Amino acid sequence: MHPAQLPQKPPWHSLLVLLALWLLAFAPILPGLYASWLDPENSHGPLVPFIVLYLVWLKKEDLGQAKLGTSRWGLAVTGAGLLVYVLAQAGSVAVASRAMLVVTLMGLVLFNLGPEVFRRVAFPLAFLFFMVPFPDSLVKLVAFPLQLLASNVSASLIGAMSIPVYQEGNMLHFVQTQLEVAEACSGIRSIVSLTMLSTIFSYLLPAGGGRRLLLAASAIPVAIAANIVRVSGTGILANFYGGGVAQGFLHEFSGLAVFAFGFLAIYGEYLLFRRGAVHRPREMK
To answer: Which band of pLDDT confidence, cut at 50, 70 and 90, is reported for residue 7?
Structure first.
């Protein structure tokens, strides 16, 4: 069949068979991936595939106009991904094995549906990388500097409110109690969750690479600032009511409050950038 006469209906039977074989090949890593999602630090993982399906659904009209085809690059990407997967499994490198789950899927889409379809779903497919948990070694490497940053700034803020506080590393010492800024309070979880949200909002923005990049990158300072407010507020309460306020309901509630603050800040940026993108063409007329 001539390339110009390619059918415009996806070969569903072939795709389903390939999808089944793909899942079978990666079946050994799925239980471990699910177990990682049970960790509160990775609790966003199970939501990622559903978000991806929604993003693809938003492109349904555009996908309907895309020309089906094929690409040898897709076969090369799939083959390279499978090779890395086998090597990573042999070397017990979990993060590489899990990442290849996404890479090979991207290769299969490119090979079976062609470049036009792939370009339209490239972002949703790449978004699947958010479901791959960061390795513990990397988390610990990043978490400790964030713990110290939160401790340093919070100690300064609390001291500025005339509350006696002495900082020793990630420990805040008050007159009657002390507060440890633990790894869970480093803000890593907020950074990952808010980065995921800001990435979605940046994708939904009208064309404008600068705005999209700025919105996506803003999640990190927003998360850090929100976490510092959380640590500072907890320290102030601990000074007056004891270290018990840093545990139990208040600890969980403050975590939700940090996320809510970050979400509202990023959503506000999204609305601001979107309004600017909508009105800018009118101003140029």
So the answer is: very low
Using an 8 Å Cβ cutoff, are 106 and 127 in contact? no
* Spacing of C-alpha 103 from chain mean position: 17
pTM: 0.81
The residues near 278 (Cβ < 8 Å, ≥ 6 apart) are: 206
Domain ranges of the chain: 3-131, 136-273
162: left (phi over 0), alpha (psi -120 to 50) or beta: left
Distance of CA 21 to the CA centre of its chain: 27
- Please give the Cα distance from 188 to 196 (Å, whole number): 12
- Long-range pairs, 166-175, Cβ under 8 A, ≥24: 170/144, 172/235, 172/238, 174/235, 174/238, 174/239, 175/239
69 exposure class (CB count in 10 Å sphere: 0-12, 13-18, 19+):
middle
Per-residue pLDDT tens digits for 138-164: 888 888 889 889 999 999 999 999 889
For residue 85, what are its two tokens?
A: 């997967």
Distance between CA atoms of 170 and 159, rounded to whole angstroms? 16
Show the tokens assigned to 78: 């799939």
CA pair distance 202, 272, nearest whole angstrom: 12
* Three-state DSSP state, 139: helix
Could you tell me which of 71, 164, 161 has the C-alpha nearest to residue 122?
71
